[in-house]
């Protein structure tokens, strides 16, 4: 029973990343070729996913025997971890959002998903010939959608929309909105698998539960964010890399361990198809591959090969399908590319230098492991003290500064719109998983680093490199609008899981030390002390995490938007050409263009009375029905004949995510979505 449960636990928790990677491997080329459809997706995707699952269940080894106590592993750790992930997904399905109006990223991804699910190709045609030709008073770009020549490009990368497309094919817009909760549950399951490998199977349910309760994990899993997909891929890549390195193999020949290493590298690289920021997270993997090369480990070249293939996909996703977005990010992306190139060159030089000498001893001099552990604590202390000595300023974006100023006024904070609040980043972590978890994680990370340098924890080398690098670089500069829960997106892929993982490891280490305390000659005393330490450690992580989550996890955002979209689309004639005559086009243009399937443009004019009349005439000359849209009826009335009906088909009054700056979010704000239209006959 024990060996079977160990195999099932290992393979089921590796499967989510393999499934997503297999789907992206075939779906992304179909999108690039412009032939993505339910038929082509099924013909290639189903065999790819099936092959990936078969490979995972044949190649992934059982959890190591040393991970559990006794000769075998009972079933309860796996069953409980899977139950936590399933319960998480069920709750998020019940609370899933209906964010379709573009204000921030979820609706941008939703509109991206809808377009490729319906059309299977990019870019998005403007169809300006069906409105008023190249009239200079019209614009075709909007929030998160770039007007380039006579086409429109979506802002973000295609990875998450390709995953959510499957739900759209199966259930339309409602089906699309149900996929993120499922992917979020898979993230919890994958994290449980990583904890089972690095901490022990019996600690996996505790780790999974803390992450599942975390407000940010719940929040991003209720809307079409990219983070759930990125989390499954990057945590799953760490799982697969752990499995690939459980056996030392020679560079020559090819074994299951070489295959697993190649798959792990591929999954890491495919993170770039989902989020461009994954490039930063992958830099430690290059250094680790250099360590494997110097150590003559056979997994090194397959790992690098898989990474190169996955990164190639990411390069095409970025520069082929999202170039305007990368150009928008050039101020931060170009330096990151230079840093990445420098890392590759430096690692190559270090490998050449150490090729004959071998790896240096991490435990020489003898004080080095302890000094490294102390440095971890020092870094955490510096991050904690940073708000006392430093205030970060400068968004580099006037719109962001204006928004932060409005939030400060709402919260009654000192007016400082240029403040980024980045110096508070470690406290953000404390909000969402508890300051007790932060403290336990600091001690855990310090001990893990010490054990690595003492050659006592080789399995932790890659996870510690990736997680610690991501934690430090992210907390130093989150690079995101700092209102919450929005800013917590930057933490959920790897940062919050890292804190939970290190904290659970420290609690497990402490409980084990108490259980094996040589000075206690009564077994029941040791068992009681260990159990008390374990229960207390999990409680001090879980309770503050749950208290924060309770404040905002009781509402559904933008409820009613799906029905409103259907009503809006029914109100627009099939032969319509829509002109949005006020600022409503920023959030609704792609919704009308994509979900209603009619040519749409926005008015940008110094003389709107004259220009609208000319545009209406141009639409009528093309044999189409002009439709004017706006956020208020008074914006339409000057351009239509008296008595023309002005209808209100999109009328949503719901709850939406709040914005806070100096405390965790604890309640919903109001969302008012309005589109009025007039059909000009």
Automatic annotation (TrEMBL):
TM annotation in the entry: 12-36, 42-63, 75-95, 152-170, 177-199, 257-276, 303-321, 333-355, 367-385, 426-448, 460-480, 492-511, 532-555
Keywords noted in UniProt: Membrane, Transmembrane, Transmembrane helix
Record-given protein name: Glycosyltransferase RgtA/B/C/D-like domain-containing protein
Organism ancestry: Bacteria, Bacillati, Actinomycetota, Actinomycetes, Streptosporangiales
């Amino acid at each position: 029973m024990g060996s079977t449960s160990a195999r099932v636990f290992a393979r089921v928790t590796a499967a989510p990343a393999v499934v997503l990677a297999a789907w992206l491997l075939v779906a992304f080329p179909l999108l690039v070729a412009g032939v993505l459809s339910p038929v082509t997706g099924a013909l290639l995707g189903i065999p790819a996913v099936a092959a990936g699952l078969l490979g995972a269940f044949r190649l992934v080894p059982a959890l190591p025997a040393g991970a559990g106590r006794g000769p075998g592993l009972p079933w309860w750790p796996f069953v409980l971890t899977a139950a936590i992930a399933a319960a998480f997904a069920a709750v998020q399905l019940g609370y899933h959002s209906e964010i379709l109006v573009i204000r921030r990223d979820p609706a941008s991804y939703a509109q991206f998903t809808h377009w490729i699910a319906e059309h299977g190709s990019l870019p998005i045609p403007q169809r300006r010939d069906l409105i008023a030709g190249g009239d200079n008073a019209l614009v075709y770009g909007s929030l998160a959608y770039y007007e380039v020549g006579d086409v429109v490009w979506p802002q973000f990368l295609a990875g998450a929309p390709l995953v959510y497309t499957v739900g759209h094919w199966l259930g339309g817009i409602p089906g699309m909105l149900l996929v993120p909760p499922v992917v979020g549950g898979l993230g919890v399951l994958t994290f449980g698998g990583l904890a089972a490998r690095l901490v022990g199977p019996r600690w996996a349910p505790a780790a999974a539960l803390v992450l599942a309760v975390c407000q940010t994990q719940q929040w991003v899993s209720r809307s079409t964010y990219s983070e759930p997909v990125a989390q499954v891929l990057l945590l799953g890549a760490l799982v697969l890399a752990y499995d690939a390195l459980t056996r030392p193999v020679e560079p020559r020949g090819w074994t299951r361990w070489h295959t697993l290493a190649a798959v792990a590298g591929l999954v890491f690289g495919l993170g770039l198809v989902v989020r461009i920021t994954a490039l930063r997270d992958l830099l430690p993997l290059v250094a680790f591959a250099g360590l494997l090369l110097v150590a003559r480990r056979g997994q090194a070249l397959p790992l690098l090969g898989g990474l190169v293939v996955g990164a190639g996909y990411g390069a095409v996703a970025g520069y082929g399908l999202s170039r305007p977005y990368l150009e928008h990010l050039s101020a931060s992306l170009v330096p990151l590319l230079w840093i990445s190139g420098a890392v590759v060159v430096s690692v190559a030089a270090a490998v050449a230098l150490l090729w004959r000498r071998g790896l240096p001893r991490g435990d020489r001099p003898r004080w080095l492991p302890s000094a490294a552990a102390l440095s971890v604590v020092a870094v955490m202390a510096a991050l904690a003290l940073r708000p006392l000595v430093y205030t970060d300023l400068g968004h580099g974006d006037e719109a962001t500064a204006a928004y932060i100023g409005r939030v400060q006024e709402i919260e009654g904070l000192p007016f400082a719109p240029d403040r980024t609040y980045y110096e508070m980043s470690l406290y953000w972590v404390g909000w969402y998983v508890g300051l007790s978890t932060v403290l336990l994680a600091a001690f855990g990370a310090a001990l893990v680093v010490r054990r690595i340098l003492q050659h006592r924890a080789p399995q932790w080398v890659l996870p510690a490199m990736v997680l610690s690098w991501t934690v430090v670089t992210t907390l130093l500069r989150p690079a995101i609008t700092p209102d919450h829960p929005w800013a917590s997106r930057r933490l959920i892929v790897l940062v919050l899981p890292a804190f939970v993982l290190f904290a659970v490891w420290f609690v497990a280490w402490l409980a084990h030390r108490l259980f094996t305390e040589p000075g206690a000659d009564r077994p029941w005393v040791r068992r009681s002390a260990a159990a008390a330490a374990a229960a207390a450690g999990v409680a001090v992580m879980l309770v503050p995490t749950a208290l924060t989550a309770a404040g905002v996890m009781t509402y559904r955002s933008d409820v009613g938007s799906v029905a409103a979209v259907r009503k809006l689309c029914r109100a627009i004639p099939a032969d319509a050409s829509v002109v949005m005559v006020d600022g409503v086009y920023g959030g609704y243009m792609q919704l009308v263009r994509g979900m209603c399937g009619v040519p749409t443009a926005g008015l940008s004019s110094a003389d709107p009375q004259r220009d609208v009349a000319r545009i209406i005439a141009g639409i009528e000359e093309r044999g189409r029905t002009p439709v004017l849209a706006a956020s208020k009826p008074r914006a339409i009335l000057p351009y239509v004949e008296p008595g023309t009906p002005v209808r209100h088909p999109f009328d949503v009054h719901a709850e939406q995510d709040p914005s806070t700056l100096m405390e965790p979010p604890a309640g919903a704000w109001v969302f008012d979505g309005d589109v009025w239209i007039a059909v000009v006959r």
